[in-house]
Amino acid sequence: MVAKQILVYVVLLLCCLVTVHNCHSIQTTPLQNRLSKAISCEECRLGAQLVDSLIEINASTTDIIKVVADLCIKSGFEQPDVCEGILTNYVPIVLDVLLESELSPGDLCDYFKLCNSTDESSDAEFYHQNRVYRQKEIFTDCSRQSPKITPKALKSNSTVGYFLQITDIHFDHDYVVGSDPDCGRPLCCRNGTGDAGVWGNYQCDLPFNTVEAIFQHLSTLEDQLDFIIWTGDNPPHNVWDPNSKSNQIAATQTLSALVLKSFPSTPVFPSIGNHESFPSDEFYLPNTQWLLDVLYDSWEPWLDSDALQTVSTYGFYTSLVRDGLRLISLNTLDGDMINFYNLLPTRAVNQTAWFENVLQQAVANDEYVIIAGHIPCTLKSGVSDEWCTMYQQLVEEYGSIISAQIYGHTHLDQISVYTDTETFSKPIGVNYIAPSMTTYQNHEPGFRIYEYDYSLNQVTNYYQYHANISDANLYGQLNFTLSYSAKELYDMPDLTSNSWFQVANHLRSDDQMFNNYYNFLSNHPNGQTPCTGECRDKVICEIFGITSFQFDQCMGV
Ligand SMILES: *[C@@H]1O[C@H](CO)[C@@H](O)[C@H](O)[C@H]1NC(C)=O
Ligand SMILES: *[C@@H]1O[C@H](CO)[C@@H](O)[C@H](O)[C@H]1NC(C)=O
Ligand SMILES: *[C@@H]1O[C@H](CO)[C@@H](O)[C@H](O)[C@H]1NC(C)=O
Ligand SMILES: *[C@@H]1O[C@H](CO)[C@@H](O)[C@H](O)[C@H]1NC(C)=O
Ligand SMILES: *[C@@H]1O[C@H](CO)[C@@H](O)[C@H](O)[C@H]1NC(C)=O
Ligand SMILES: *[C@@H]1O[C@H](CO)[C@@H](O)[C@H](O)[C@H]1NC(C)=O
Ligand SMILES: *[C@@H]1O[C@H](CO)[C@@H](O)[C@H](O)[C@H]1NC(C)=O
């Protein structure tokens, strides 16, 4: 009986701890791999049955948290404060979702891909396909929209301009210089004694002075930038802190003020990241309306009233960048695997319908479209196949007017190449996934500048920059270096989907090209360990693996 009880709590615990571990190891293994190593399908199902009976006997949430936390602490899974905090934050949500949906705990085993979805009792797919929406979709009249800050004239007489992408800033106001970077918690450098440097540490989120120094540098580029895409994730990775809602809010407000101060006359297009919410990754209306209100106020300087209206309704918006070029900023929490609310059969707004409607109107208005969002469709980002299938279909249908797709979230420097859904052999689009500004975990801080040709409506190159935190801590100064330019590094004639498709295929046979891609993938301060065989296959299939089906197919399983 004791063993069985342990399983109950392990299942529940896993569902909750996924959040922590997902960020812990985001650069090494996808969520599902980590989970399936920790627990088998049978154990999950057995545990799930027992969770079921626990719910039936009306065990209180507090009791469940207490017992699970005790188990978590005794097993040494995490430090006591992390165990208690993470369970306090997530258990009530998991239980609510189980009670409100018609899902059984066993469906979580399928959802997290611990068991074959063809097994009996798999209702998750059914509920996804039969999702109903509580409110009417919102449609906006795209033709009336124009950004508040009018785009500046091009910097030269050429038709080429530049835009900046900043992403995953994750600054930590509680960073303490000289604290312990190896504290045995998901986020350190906050207390104890150690070598956490003035400019940062590779195991931790960024101290605010480093973020300020980076923006100080970026602000000197303002004259060269037509606009800025800011793809979210502002607060630190202290996801177990039960009192961090006000800090989540402050992070978005502080960074919005810093961006505005650094770029007083440049249009900025922000997107919502999974860490903006509290608890991190959980988004559901009306529960999360407070966050939309914060975004409304923080993004107000850059967006017009129509865009702000959809921001306050669901966190997405569209806005003209200039005549003939539109930006769509998505709320990708709808695709977040660890947004447990996505298991509920209802959502407040049909984002897909809105997205498709904006694309249709863009076609009618002869506009090109840049799509910006936080979580990209790649296995490493813990995103649902349901979301990616929808996204891939729209990219396929509207590929001819989609001129760029700009994402972040993985902290890695990745591309993701879309192919047609019938033969998987015709390139139809590319996601640019830019690496993080935070050093968490084991990256040099980065930012990216895209070169965009307004007559071709194409990204024609991008320039990836990084600072060296070891050097900065050593010499007391933060310098930025060009890591590479895409066109030169991959020897590309242009940056069309076709050319990226060819590069991605060449990675299979061209060792030099693969090593280039792999080395910049994590921008690791100490260089990369070699990646061959299955490691190499995974890195390459990740590029084509928009859904887990496509990833498996590419891997030959
Ligand atoms: C649990 O609560 C429900 C509704 O409040 C009640 O009908 C049921 O008898 C309770 N079950 C137990 C085992 O106490
Ligand atoms: C899923 O089913 C396949 C084929 O029946 C089997 O080979 C595989 O081991 C199963 N996987 C799991 C996790 O049960
Ligand atoms: C752009 O063109 C105008 C007039 O055709 C010319 O006066 C100006 O010098 C040009 N500017 C650049 C940067 O080439
Ligand atoms: C650091 O903070 C944690 C949580 O607040 C606490 O449990 C721990 O004892 C502290 N460690 C030191 C060395 O002060
Ligand atoms: C949401 O919108 C999409 C695209 O228009 C549509 O295919 C789907 O059926 C809608 N879902 C619901 C539940 O209305
Ligand atoms: C950063 O600087 C250190 C120390 O000078 C050096 O060993 C390392 O290679 C540099 N890293 C990068 C990415 O340039
Ligand atoms: C940064 O650049 C300046 C000017 O080029 C140079 O003097 C300084 O040594 C550099 N610092 C580091 C840490 O590389």
TrEMBL record:
A single MF term (Gene Ontology): sphingomyelin phosphodiesterase activity
Domain Saposin B-type: 37-119
Amino-acid positions noted as binding Zn(2+) 1 in the UniProt annotation, renumbered to this chain: D168, H170, D233, H411
Disulphides: C44-C109, C72-C83, C183-C188, C189-C204, C531-C535
Keyword terms, alphabetized: Disulfide bond, Glycoprotein, Glycosidase, Hydrolase, Metal-binding, Secreted, Signal, Zinc
InterPro entries: ASM_C, ASMase/PPN1_MPP, Calcineurin-like_PHP, Metallo-depent_PP-like, Saposin-like, SaposinB_dom, Sphingomy_PDE
Any one of the GO BP annotations: sphingomyelin catabolic process
Primary localisation category: secreted
CC terms in the record's Gene Ontology section: extracellular region; membrane
Signal peptide: 1-25
Subcellular location: Secreted
Cofactors named for this entry: Zn(2+)
Cofactor binding remark: Binds 2 Zn(2+) ions per subunit.
Protein residues bound to Zn(2+) 2: D233, N274, H374, H409
CDD domains assigned: MPP_ASMase
PROSITE patterns on file: SAP_B
PANTHER family linked to this entry: SPHINGOMYELIN PHOSPHODIESTERASE, SPHINGOMYELIN PHOSPHODIESTERASE A
Family: Belongs to the acid sphingomyelinase family.
Role played: Converts sphingomyelin to ceramide.
Official protein name in the record: Sphingomyelin phosphodiesterase
